[in-house]
Write a structure and sequence with these properties.
The chain is of the alpha+beta class. The protein has three domains: 82 residues, OB fold (Dihydrolipoamide Acetyltransferase, E2P); 162 residues, Immunoglobulin-like (Sandwich); 70 residues. It is built from seven helices and 15 strands.
Length: 430
């Protein structure tokens, strides 16, 4: 059909132009992001070994050592290489032979404060009778404490770098594409990759496609209340967990810096080193507070006259805000078409999501019009219907946005189903 040809032609022209003009620059940006986030993973992995893995291995080694009576000879807290540690000597006898030990633990604890170590030393005064743990294979090796210190978990801090690096590598492809092309908000349907969805529909309909996996969207009729596909709860939980995790680890190092300065020791290196991590922690706390406040936003109730509609036809949209809308300065209702694409380049698989259609249906700054309203929504006939296949998905949604000054904005999406045109009316033939 002519309509189908024009859609394919427009899509092909747009996609071809984007690829021919930006592929080299896109690959260059991709390599930069790959190296940048790869460096985070490398640093995190390298630092993780001495800070966490090695101490844990040393701890596990002492779990089988033999408990032996001993006597403390001397003990004190010293500072070496910008670290506080316990310097202790004790004597013990095995088979009539006296040995001297000097290790408190078989591993060093990162970030231990001087005050906490002095508290331990006070219990290890010279002449104190206690027990030590001796290596049965080498009686000259012994420790006073073989317990697992929770402070060892501080050594997991480098995992933050690994986590950031992995997230960066996962999302760098999407970041590059957004940087190269920007976000589409116009009503033109012939943008980006909708041609791929049309091609896959044809292939799966004729049995020549990948696996013939196209699924007809579920069909129901009559009025229905749409459920929001976007909720601030998930974001609030993630932000809170990240803020607690990040600041919990940073606080250990921060306590060490504060303790040093309080005792007249000016640890400039650690102080300046911690500044960016503290700033990120503050930002994480603010983000957690922001997403938490969003939970108290007005929640619109959206009802449509029909659960499904056909390309070119219309339905009636009704919205209601059960709570007060006095805080909303401006409200917007949008019709949005989104495409999900999964594709392969070389041995890598990429997933992209992009809006190919966005139309402003309604906008107001009048509180009475925000509280409740109704309007007719027409689905453009020359766009793609809802589509669900192995490598392409087309989703349609209604998006309600509310601008709230000095507060998180309302931003809710409600998905619904758009059916294809009947074959005799110009649908893409099988």
């Amino acid at each position: 059909m002519p309509q189908d040809d024009s859609l394919n032609s427009a899509s092909r022209k747009s996609t071809s132009k984007a690829l021919s003009h930006s592929r080299s620059l896109e690959r260059g940006c991709g390599c930069f992001f790959g190296l940048f986030f790869g460096f985070f993973i490398l640093v995190g992995t390298v630092v993780l070994f001495p800070l966490f893995l090695l101490p844990v291995l040393q701890y596990l080694e002492t779990t089988s050592w033999v408990e032996t009576p001993c006597e403390i000879v001397s003990s004190r807290v010293i500072r070496e290489n910008e670290k506080n540690r316990i310097a202790v000597q004790y004597k013990y006898r095995i088979q009539g032979k006296e040995f001297r030990g000097h290790k408190y633990r078989n591993y060093e604890v990162v970030g231990a404060s001087r005050s906490s170590l002095e508290h331990v030393v006070n219990k290890l005064q010279p002449g104190t009778k206690t027990v030590c743990y001796v290596n049965p294979e080498n009686n000259s090796q012994a420790v006073l404490d073989r317990s697992f210190s929770p402070m060892l978990l501080v050594g997991l801090f480098p995992l933050v770098f690994v986590f950031i690096g992995l997230l960066g590598l996962v999302f760098s492809r999407s970041l590059v594409q957004r940087f190269m092309t920007g976000r589409l908000t116009g009503v033109k349907h012939q943008e980006w990759r909708t041609e791929a969805a049309i091609k896959e529909q044809r292939q799966s309909s004729t049995g020549d496609g990948h696996n013939g996996e196209w699924e007809m969207p579920s069909v129901s009729t009559g009025p229905i209340e749409l459920k929001s596909s976007s909720s601030p709860i998930t974001g609030a939980i993630f932000a809170a967990i990240f803020a607690l995790f990040w600041n919990g680890i940073v606080s250990v190092f921060l306590y060490e810096v504060v303790d040093d300065w309080a005792n007249g020791r000016h640890n400039w290196f650690l102080t300046f080193f911690l500044i960016p991590f503290v700033l990120i922690g503050i930002g994480a706390i603010l983000a957690a507070i922001y997403t938490f406040l969003a939970l108290f936003n007005p929640k619109p109730k959206v009802t449509v006259s029909d659960a499904t509609t056909i390309l070119g036809e219309s339905f009636v949209l009704n919205w209601q805000f059960p709570g007060s809308t006095s805080s909303i300065r401006k409200m917007q209702v949008q019709l949005v078409g989104t495409e999900w694409v999964q594709y392969q380049q070389g041995t890598s698989t990429y997933t992209d999501t992009r809006e190919f259609y966005c139309e402003d249906l309604f906008e107001t700054d009048q509180p009475m019009e925000m509280t409740e309203g109704e309007l007719e929504v027409v689905i453009p006939v020359n766009t793609m219907h809802s589509f669900n296949a192995s490598h392409n998905k087309i989703k349609w949604s209604l998006r309600i946005k509310g601008d709230i000054p000095m507060w998180p904005d309302v931003n809710r999406s409600y998905e619904f189903t758009v059916l294809p045109l009947p074959v005799e009316q110009g649908a893409i033939p099988g």
